[in-house]
Write a structure and sequence with these properties.
The protein has about 350 residues and is an alpha/beta fold. It folds into 2 domains: about 240 residues, 3-Layer(aba) Sandwich (Aspartate Aminotransferase, domain 2); about 90 residues, Aspartate Aminotransferase, domain 1. α7 links the parallel β4 and β5. α2 runs parallel beside α11 and α12 packs parallel to α14. The chain starts with 12 loop residues before the first helix and ends in a 5-residue tail after the last helix. The protein has 14 helices and 10 strands. About 40% of the residues lie in helices and about 15% in strands. The protein has a 7-stranded mixed β-sheet with strand order 1-7-6-5-4-2-3, with helices on both faces. A 3-stranded antiparallel β-sheet has the order 8-10-9, with helices on one face. The radius of gyration is 21 Å and the shape is globular.
């Protein structure tokens, strides 16, 4: 079983069928096709607000373009130290913003520590012009540690952002997983909580290549089409990207997929607890971080179960990710191997 990521699985049949259905006849290019023209209204209906939507091929592109529309080159973007934009995007946010500085903030379980964030902002302001001017707060939902910012936590971050006139960005690579975890509306989790722009990911939740920038504050959309084109993210055959999202939202497929992935994560976490292996942080979406003896992890890998070592080498913390394709039978099979390979089993 491959628990490395929710990127390793295939495409949902409904979404694959939608792409195939779009593969007939001629359609206008660069977003003028019938599928893309429907998409803005669909997104607006989902978020209960008139939004601007721009499709991209990767989450890195979505994050980088979103941030480039929110900050100037001399400004700072505050994010958690383990945020994807800080650790896994090869400097793309700095590149596309023209040099805006990422400032990492620590915090438990993947969440930024609010007092630490405030202190960093104050230090930046006190050292003008020697340090980057505070510009934006970027929150990851769900976080890189599989936890979820509550609506109350988002409210407090928004209050701080308002106090210092900062914009708010949300990296929603696993947005659907956090949404079903909180059992709230997309509007409540975004613009009603002060989010200006959302990087909306669907690839990890059953799409083929489904990423979008959703802009709630229209002033940030004024020149976004230029930013998208300059970054090479204005796809010519946009119907094949738009059709994925139309299928993604139809009959709440996106929510069903995320709910299933989250449910499987809970089942896997329960299995680890049953065998006495400590879970490192709350399992609130579809990622589990567990401490395993290195010899046991090696045995599981040799048995054909795949997952990532997380954090510093030798920390014995491993990440397991479930998806919309994970089955209870697969988890039970993994549990049998875990029990057989563990010499300390009861």
């Amino acid at each position: 079983m491959n628990f490395k990521s929710d990127n390793v699985v295939g495409v949902c049949p409904e979404i694959m069928q939608a792409v195939m259905d779009a593969n007939h006849g001629d359609q206008s290019s660069y977003g003028a096709d019938e599928y893309s023209l429907k998409l803005k209204k669909v997104f607006s209906d989902v978020f209960e607000k008139d939004v601007d939507v721009y499709l991209t091929s990767t989450g890195t592109a979505s994050n980088s373009l979103a941030l480039s529309s929110l900050v100037s080159p001399h400004q700072a973007i505050y994010c958690h130290q383990d945020a994807h934009i800080n650790t896994d995007e090869c400097g793309a946010p700095e590149f596309y913003t023209g040099g805006a500085k990422l400032i990492s903030i620590d915090g438990e379980n993947g969440k930024m520590n609010l007092p630490a964030l405030k202190k960093s902002i104050q230090v930046g302001l006190s050292l003008r012009p020697h340090t980057s001017q505070p510009g934006c707060v970027s929150l990851t939902q769900s976080t890189e540690w599989g936890t979820v910012y509550s609506l109350e936590e988002l409210r407090r971050f928004h209050e701080l952002a308002q106090e210092y006139h900062l914009q708010m960005h949300m990296d929603g690579a696993r947005f659907a997983n956090s949404l079903v975890s909180l059992n709230c509306t997309p509007a409540e989790l975004t613009w009603k909580s002060g989010i200006d722009i959302l990087s909306f990911g669907a690839t990890k939740n059953g799409a083929m290549a489904g990423e979008a920038v959703v802009i709630f504050n229209h002033k940030y959309a004024n020149d976004f089409d230029y930013l998208q084109k300059r970054a090479g993210q204005l796809m010519s055959k946009t119907r094949f990207f738009a059709s994925q999202f139309l299928a993604y939202f139809k009959n709440d497929l996106w929510l069903k997929n995320a709910a299933h992935a989250n449910k499987m994560a809970q089942a896997l976490a329960a299995l680890f607890k049953q065998h006495g292996f400590p879970i490192q942080c709350p399992v609130e979406a579809n990622e589990i971080f567990v401490e395993l003896p290195s010899f046991l992890a090696d045995k599981l890998l040799k048995q054909g179960h795949f997952f990532y070592e997380w954090g510093c080498p030798g920390s014995n913390v491993y990440r397991f990710v479930t998806s919309c394709f994970t089955t209870l039978q697969e988890i039970e099979s993994f549990g049998c191997d875990l029990g057989e390979l563990n010499p300390d089993k009861k």
